Amino acid sequence: MQVKARYEEAFFRKFLYIALVCAAYSLWCLYDGIVKYPADLVRAKVYHEDMKDLDSAAREKAWLDRTTSEDWKPLVPDAPADIEQDISQQYMQIAVCLLIAIPMFLKYFLARGTYIEATDTEIRPSWLKTAIPFESITKIDKTRWKKKGIAKLYYSVGSVSKSFTLDDFKFAQTEMAMIMARAERDLPDSAIIGLRQGEEPAPESGSQNT
After folding, report:
1. pLDDT, tens digit (0-9, with 9 covering 90-100), for 144-165
2. What distance in Å separates the CA atoms of residue 108 and residue 19, rounded to the nearest whole number?
3. Are 133 and 75 found together in one domain?
4. Which of 33, 89, 146, 173 has its Cα between 20 and 30 A from that of 207?
């Protein structure tokens, strides 16, 4: 037996999409934080600080003259404190987006090229230095295998107990099913939590009319 379950590109691509969306939004926030809102802040300080001592009519005329000469929009700007808060919020949003984007990029790029290979005697995940002998597996928890494609193998290396997760959404399903069947082969039913590969629950008996 020689089976290799390669990583599922379609599964990991969603992490790339999330990362790209977050990165694009971060760039948008960065533009707002260093270009748009600072420009708004300049206009706000002119209106709310430089012209604050003018009466209403004089202030309106001075503002119209200034916006015309500077080619600004004549709308009355928000208060400087509000715009400064908007600038701070842009950087906070950038930080949040990067906290999401960086792990998503890592999930995608670190998964590329990974695989889980199995022979007659052991499982060899590409990212582990040591293989997992089938004879060392003591229990398989398949409670999430049917719905989530996730199973946990428990095995012993010397006196140390370890676990390893099989996930047939992250890796090719057909090959993963073959690896799972081999992992189960030498285990008694009591060591498998859930159904063995190929087993289906017995259909419920229907009621009979009398």
Report:
1. 998 899 999 999 988 899 999 9
2. 9
3. no
4. 146
Number of domains into which the chain is organized: 2
Question: Does the residue 55 lie in any domain?
Answer: yes
134 and 74 together in one domain:
no
- Is 1 within a domain? no
CA atoms within 13 A on the CB side of 171: 24
Under DSSP, the state recorded for 7 is B
How far apart are the C-alpha atoms of 124 and 118, rounded to whole Å?
6
110-148 in b/e form (b: 16+ CB < 10 A) is: ebeeebbbbeeebbebeeeeeebebebbeebbbeebeee
Q: Identify whether residues 102 and 125 lie together within a single domain.
A: no
pLDDT of 96 > 60? The answer is yes
Residue 75 domain boundaries: 9-111
Q: What's the whole-model pTM score?
A: 0.78
